[in-house]
Design a protein that fits this description.
6 strands; two-stranded antiparallel ribbon; mainly beta; 2 domains
Length: about 120
């Protein structure tokens, strides 16, 4: 069976297919299988996910505005380390405005300036 080239138009991904990749470890245009790429990606993710910690998240809905905050895990609500997104809704439910405030305290979300 002849090797198939992987393209953006392939509808299915067969791990035994072979592709020419110009940038891979080793020489240029090295022939590698999809399974090799998957294995290398999995190894990279596994090696780097040991230090991954789910971030702190908060959500609040006040009147016609929603607030969604993200910070480093373990951050207190009073610490100025939050990135908060504010979405204000019109009476018909459509989005009226959006804005972001960074380096702010979650406790101050109602009075922060959102850009």
């Amino acid at each position: 069976m002849a090797d198939k080239k992987i393209s953006q138009f392939d509808e299915t991904l067969n791990p035994t297919l072979t592709a020419f990749l110009p940038i891979v470890e080793g020489s240029a245009n090295q022939r590698v299988t999809v399974q090799t790429i998957i294995n290398q990606a999995s190894t990279f993710v596994n090696a780097n996910s040991a230090s991954w910690v789910e971030p702190a998240r908060n959500f609040d809905l006040v009147d016609s505005s929603s607030y969604c905050g993200v910070a480093v895990a373990g951050s207190s609500n009073s610490a100025s380390v939050w990135k908060i997104t504010k979405v204000t809704f019109a009476d018909d439910g459509s989005v009226e405005s959006t804005g972001v405030a960074s380096g702010v305290a979650w406790d101050n979300r109602l009075t922060e300036t959102y850009i």
